[in-house]
């Protein structure tokens, strides 16, 4: 019975951990990467950096989004686009100061 209980707890922990999107917190700075996911209803993107970090970025009213040197709307963002992001680390959160679409 003890083994069954321990196995059940291990299985639950595995399921919970494997369903959790893993993101990274990096230092303030500028990073290049690829958009892995766009959540338009949350004004959020996930960016995979060149050094395999996953950044979760919630856009704010202050986030500047540009393409070819011009301001653009959030709706231009798509999965697999190359971007350059400037982020500010605030505790365990990353605030995107600017996002530049590179392609």
Helical content, roughly?
Answer: 10-25%
Q: Give, in order, the helices and strands.
A: HEEEEEEE
| Strand order in space, largest sheet | 3-2-1-6-7-4-5
Category by helix and strand content: alpha+beta
CATH architecture: Beta Barrel
Q: What form results from the Cα inertia axes?
A: globular
Major sheet summary line = 7 strands, mixed
For the CA atoms, what is the radius of gyration?
17 Å
Q: Look at the structure and give the mean pLDDT.
A: 86
Please indicate the count of domains.
1
Beta-strand content estimate = 35-45%
Give the class-level CATH name: Mainly Beta
Q: Can you count the beta strands? A: 7
- Give the CA-CA distance, first to last residue: 58 Å
Q: CATH superfamily assignment? A: Copper binding periplasmic protein CusF
Question: What is the secondary structure topology, with strand pairs?
Answer:
Blueprint: H1 2-19, E1 29-39, E2 44-49, E3 54-58, E4 64-67, E5 70-71, E6 82-90, E7 93-101
What can you tell me about this protein's structure?
The chain has 103 residues and is an alpha+beta fold. The protein has one domain (2-101): Copper binding periplasmic protein CusF (OB fold (Dihydrolipoamide Acetyltransferase, E2P), Beta Barrel). The chain has one helix at residues 2-19; strands at residues 29-39, 44-49, 54-58, 64-67, 70-71, 82-90, 93-101. The longest helix has 18 residues, at 2-19. The model is unreliable at 6-11 and 13-20 (pLDDT under 50).
């Amino acid at each position: 019975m003890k083994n069954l209980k321990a196995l059940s707890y291990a299985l639950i922990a595995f399921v919970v951990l494997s369903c959790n999107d893993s993101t990274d917190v990096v230092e303030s700075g500028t990073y290049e990467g690829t958009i892995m996911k766009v959540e338009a209803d949350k004004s959020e993107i996930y960016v995979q950096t060149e050094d395999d970090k996953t950044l979760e970025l919630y856009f704010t009213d202050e986030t500047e989004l540009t393409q070819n040197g011009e301001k653009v709307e959030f709706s231009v963002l798509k999965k697999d686009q190359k971007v350059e992001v400037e982020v500010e680390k605030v505790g365990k959160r990353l605030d995107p100061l600017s996002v530049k679409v590179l392609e």
